[in-house]
Specification:
The strands form two sheets. Strands 6-7-8-9-4-3-10 form a seven-stranded mixed sheet. The longest helix is centred in the N-terminal third of the chain and has 7 residues. It is about 5% helix and about 35% strand. The protein has one domain: Metal Binding Protein, Guanine Nucleotide Exchange Factor, Chain A. The protein is mostly beta strands and about 130 residues long.
C-alpha cells in the first residue's frame, strides 16, 4: 500500500506507522487545538483509524465532550486527536519522521487564526539554527 509513513514522540516511547494516503491534511486554528498543542494551530493528517498502527502506550485526554487527544505519557508529545467512537484519527504532522512529506491543503476554524501568522513569510529575522 502506498503512503507508508512512520513517526513517534520526542522520547521514542510511542511509535506509529500509517498506511495509505491521508483523507485530508489541514491546519486547525480552533482555540482547543491551540491550547492542546501549545501552538497557534494543529497541523494534522486525518486518516482512517484502521490505517494507523501503534507501538507503545498512548494516554488520552478528553479535551471537549466527545473529543480526545492522544499523547505520550512519558514525554507529553501531542500525537493524535479523535472523536469518541469515530473511525478517523488526526495525526500531528510534526510527529512524522519526515514531516515535510505532507503539505496542508486547507485551514479550519480560520476565524480563530492568529493575525501575526501572516507575517511569517515577511522579512522577520531568521537564523538557520539557534542564534548565538
Amino acid at each position: 500500500m502506498t503512503g507508508r509513513r512512520r513517526g513517534g514522540c520526542l522520547c521514542g516511547a510511542v511509535r506509529f506507522e500509517t498506511a495509505g494516503e491521508p483523507l485530508r491534511v489541514d491546519l486547525c486554528h480552533c482555540r482547543i487545538c491551540q491550547k492542546a498543542t501549545g501552538q497557534p494551530f494543529f497541523a494534522r493528517a486525518v486518516l482512517p483509524a484502521s490505517q494507523v498502527m501503534l507501538e507503545g502506550e498512548v494516554a488520552w485526554f478528553a479535551s471537549t465532550p466527545g473529543f480526545e487527544r492522544g499523547f505520550c505519557p512519558s514525554c507529553g508529545t501531542t500525537l493524535f486527536a479523535r472523536r469518541n467512537g469515530g473511525d478517523r484519527l488526526s495525526v500531528a504532522i510534526g510527529t512524522f519522521d519526515e514531516p515535510d512529506a505532507l503539505t496542508p491543503q486547507a485551514q479550519v476554524w480560520a476565524s480563530r487564526r492568529l493575525p501575526w501568522l501572516a507575517r511569517l513569510d515577511d522579512d522577520l529575522p531568521a537564523w538557520p539554527e539557534f542564534p548565538a
